[in-house]
Write a structure and sequence with these properties.
Blueprint lengths: L8 H13 L3 H14 L4 H13 L4 H14 L8 H14 L3 H12 L5 H17 L3 H13 L1 H6 L4 H16 L2
C-alpha cells in the first residue's frame, strides 16, 4: 500500500469527495485531514473539511475553526467566493446560537453576491436570526429579501415549507402594524 506522503494531493481530494458522496463523512474528513497534514497552507482542504463538518456532522465549533483557517489562508486563489465563506461562517454561528454574530456575517455574505439562490439562503437565515433576536423590522427586511428570490430558490429545489413560513411570518408582521 502506498503511503499518504506519496499520494498526490489531488488524488486525496478526489477520494475525499467520493467518500462524502458515498455517505462516508468520517472517511472523507480523515482524508481531508491527511491533505491538511501534508499541505497545511492549502485553504481548499480547510474549506472543504469545514463544509463537511458543518453540513454532514453539524459539528459547528470544528467547522467554524476550519473555515476561519481557510479564511486566514485566503480562498480567492482556489475559486471560492468570499461571500460563500461569510455565509458558511454565519451558518456555523447560527448553529451555535450566536445569532448576533451570525447575522453580521450573513450580512457580509450579501455584499456583491450575485447568485440568487445563495442570496435567498442568506436572507432566510438572516430572517431566522432576526426572529430569534426579536427584531421585527430586520425580520421584515430579511423575509422580503428572501421572497424576492423565491422563484430561483424553488427552481433550485428549495423547500416550499420555508417559503410558506416566510409568507406567513411576513403577513403576520404586516397585520401587526
Amino acid at each position: 500500500m502506498q503511503s499518504s506522503r506519496n499520494v498526490p494531493i489531488e488524488e486525496l481530494l478526489r477520494s475525499a469527495e467520493e467518500r462524502e458522496e458515498a455517505g462516508d463523512a468520517l472517511g472523507a474528513e480523515a482524508l481531508l485531514g491527511r491533505v491538511i497534514s501534508l499541505k497545511p497552507e492549502f485553504s481548499l482542504a480547510w474549506y472543504r473539511r469545514g463544509m463537511l463538518r458543518l453540513f454532514e456532522q453539524e459539528a459547528f465549533e470544528e467547522a467554524l475553526a476550519d473555515l476561519r483557517r481557510a479564511e486566514e489562508l485566503g480562498v480567492d486563489g482556489v475559486g471560492i467566493p468570499v461571500s460563500q465563506l461569510h455565509y458558511l461562517h454565519g451558518e456555523c454561528l447560527f448553529g451555535l446560537g450566536r445569532f448576533e454574530e451570525a447575522d453580521a456575517r450573513l450580512a457580509q455574505g450579501l455584499i456583491g453576491e450575485q447568485d440568487e439562490v445563495l442570496r435567498a439562503e442568506i436572507y432566510y437565515r438572516r430572517a431566522e436570526c432576526a426572529d430569534e433576536l426579536e427584531r421585527p423590522e430586520a425580520l421584515r427586511e430579511a423575509l422580503t429579501g428572501f421572497l424576492a428570490h423565491k422563484a430561483a430558490y424553488l427552481d433550485s429545489g428549495g423547500d416550499g415549507e420555508q417559503i410558506e413560513w416566510a409568507e406567513t411570518r411576513l403577513a403576520g408582521l404586516s397585520g401587526g402594524r
